[in-house]
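Trying the structure run again after the queue cleared.
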Amino acid sequence: MKDARGRDTLTPEYRWALPAVLLGDGGGSRPVRRSTRDWLVDIAVFLLACGVTLVTLDELRGVPAPLLLAEQVLGALACASVWLRRRWPVGLALVLTALSTFLELVGGASLVALFTVAVHRPFKVSGPIALLNVLTIPPYLLIRPQQELPPLEWGIVLGALLLTVYAWGIVVRARRQLIWSLRQRADAAAEQARQAERERIAREMHDVLAHRVSMLSLHAGALEFRPDAPAADIARAAGAIRANAHLALQDLRQVIGVLRHPGAGGDDPVPERPQPTLADLPSLVEECRQAGMDVRLEQRAAGAPDGLGRNVYRIVQEALTNARKHAEGEPVTVTVTGAPGEGLAAEVRNPLGDPLAHRHAPRLPGAGAGLIGLAERAELAGGRLEHGPTPEGQFVVRARLPWPRGTTGENT
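Done. Tokens:
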């Protein structure tokens, strides 16, 4: 089975199990362990073949004793060979088809073999065998003429019987393939959902911890480069480090809790933890100011839905983190505007700064996935995100998300 990109989605377990389900063997000549249902089906098929053989036995009256003995022996062996139909369906069908050309008591087992081939082999294999069965009807009627019906009518009856059995097998095979396909698609969808959940949790962890760790690095750097700072400033920086470390551990514990219990939220895509909204932007900006950043907030939007406000909050948070990493000491302007029906726009702008001014200062390592994650977040919300330097020497992160008319959040 292929996905939308043309990649094979069958897992190794399914590739091994597919022959067992559709072909009746485990690959090659290795037999498959029969299930309870398989045993019941095989017993029923064996009894059916025996029943047809016993009914046909009445038609052998007047047959010479040697031929009657041969019929009985080969008929019994044919019924017993039905138990081999799962391992060698094609070979068994060919042998029984050849025997049924001139023997009466092999007919029941031959029908079972034809049905088995139709179920367990593709049309390019089962089709010629079905055609071979039909071609054996004229020689059979010449060798064993029937008294009840003319040869033409009896041939039509036998042909209809063979084609009915073969068509039944084709229908059973098609149904099994459909069930298998639906099961595989369900498993693939479940795996994609698990992958999406892991990516969502990773994105949430990055959004939360990147901000906290950058705050820790900023305060620790201040203590490192100003060891002679006043005691009050050192105490304030140490308190900020302790508070942000506590918050980082708390956020990490909550995200890991969601990872350990991924099904606790049901169909809700939002993690089970307190989530920021648009009303929390002033607190975020104030926290950055206390860390020494020069941030100006212009917020001309309120009452956005919680999910929309959370996306804008995360975008602004990541943009401030990047500004703190790459343009330390430069002023940052955050502008949030929007209204229902018009969309919600967020822009974070800061000068690029002089890279030589901080060439000796340690820089925070980054994975380079922050802006990529923000672009993905904006696309998932139905919006878009743009970022990059401007001719005026500034770096801008600009996002615009849809805000449907008539929708508001709790913080109105």
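The beta strands are 295-300, 332-339, 343-351, 384-389, 394-401. Worth checking whether this holds up in the mutant runs.
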